[in-house]
C-alpha cells in the first residue's frame, strides 16, 4: 500500500537515511492522529512494529477479520490496556520486539495531542532504549491531524510531512534502573521531536482519561520530576 498512499497523500518525507536498516531501533514520534500508526509503517524503509489495543484483534465476522488482518499487516501487536501486570506486559512486549533486532514505534507522549501541542514525554521510551541498547530515531509528524481529525472516521486527502531525525544513543545517561537516567534520556528524545515537528510545547503531561499504551511505563515506574 505504500506506493498508493504516497500517490494519494503526497507526503514530504525527510531523513530516511537516518534509520538503521538493521538492528534494534526505536521510532519515537509525536502523536497527532489515529492515522499516525498507519503513516509511520508505510513511510519507514523497514518493517516497524508497535503496540495496539487487543480489541483490534478479537473482533468477529467480516469486519473483525478485516480489522485484524489490517493491523497484523502493518506490524501491530495486540496488548491489554491497564495498570499493574498489564503495564508490565506492554513494556515486555516492546522489549521482546526490540530484542529480536526489530524496529519498534512508540509515542512518548502516551496518547494523542488534542490541541496540537507537544506534551512532556513519559519514560517508557527511555526504559526500552536503556534496557535493550536500541538507538532512538526521533520523528516529527506534521499535518496528520488534518487527514483524520479527532472524532472522524473517514480520512481526508491532505498533504503531510514526516521528518526522521538522527539516531540518538541514550546509554550515556546511565542504566535503566536510574530514574534520573530515564528522565534525562526521555527529555533528550522529546527535544529532538520538538525540533522536527515545530510544535508549541505544552510543558506538562498529556493527562488523557484514557492514556495510550505507550504511556504505560508510568504505571510501572513513578514519574521522575528531575
Helix content class:
25-40%
CATH topology: Glycerol-3-phosphate (1)-acyltransferase
CATH homologous superfamily heading = Glycerol-3-phosphate (1)-acyltransferase
Shape: globular
What Rg is obtained from the alpha carbons, in whole angstroms? 16 Å
The separation of the N and C termini measures: 43 Å
Number of E-state strands: 7
CATH class value:
Alpha Beta
Strand content: 15-25%
Summarize the structure.
GO terms for molecular function: acyltransferase activity. The protein has 226 residues and is α/β, with parallel strands linked by helices. It contains eight helices and seven strands.
Notable features of this structure?
seven-stranded mixed sheet, 226 residues, alpha/beta
Overview of the molecule:
The chain is an alpha/beta fold and about 230 residues long. The chain has one domain: Glycerol-3-phosphate (1)-acyltransferase. A 7-stranded mixed sheet has the order 1-7-6-2-5-3-4, with helices on both faces. α4 crosses α5 and α5 crosses α7.
Amino acid at each position: 500500500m505504500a506506493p498508493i498512499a504516497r500517490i494519494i497523500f503526497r507526503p514530504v518525507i525527510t531523513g530516511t537515511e537516518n534509520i538503521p536498516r538493521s538492528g534494534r531501533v526505536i521510532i519515537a514520534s509525536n502523536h497527532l492522529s489515529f492515522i499516525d500508526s498507519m503513516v509511520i509503517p508505510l513511510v519507514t524503509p523497514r518493517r516497524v512494529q508497535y503496540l495496539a489495543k487487543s480489541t483490534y484483534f478479537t473482533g468477529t465476522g467480516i469486519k473483525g477479520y478485516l480489522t485484524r488482518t489490517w493491523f497484523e499487516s502493518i506490524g501491530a501487536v495486540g496488548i491489554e490496556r491497564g495498570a499493574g501486570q498489564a503495564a508490565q506486559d506492554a513494556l515486555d512486549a516492546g522489549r521482546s520486539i526490540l530484542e529480536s533486532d526489530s524496529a519498534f514505534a512508540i509515542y512518548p507522549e502516551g496518547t494523542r495531542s488534542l490541541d496540537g501541542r507537544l506534551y512532556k514525554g513519559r519514560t517508557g521510551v527511555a526504559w526500552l532504549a536503556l534496557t535493550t541498547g536500541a538507538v532512538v530515531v526521533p520523528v516529527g509528524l506534521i499535518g496528520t491531524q488534518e487527514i483524520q481529525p479527532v472524532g472522524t472516521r473517514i480520512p481526508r486527502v491532505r498533504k503531510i510531512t514526516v521528518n526522521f531525525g538522527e539516531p540518538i544513543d541514550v546509554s550515556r545517561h546511565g542504566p535503566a534502573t536510574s530514574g534520573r537516567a530515564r528522565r534525562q534520556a526521555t527529555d533528550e528524545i522529546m527535544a529532538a521531536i520538538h525540533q522536527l515537528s515545530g510544535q508549541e510545547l505544552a510543558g506538562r503531561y498529556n493527562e488523557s482519561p484514557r492514556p495510550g499504551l505507550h504511556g504505560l511505563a508510568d504505571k510501572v515506574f513513578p514519574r521522575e520530576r528531575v
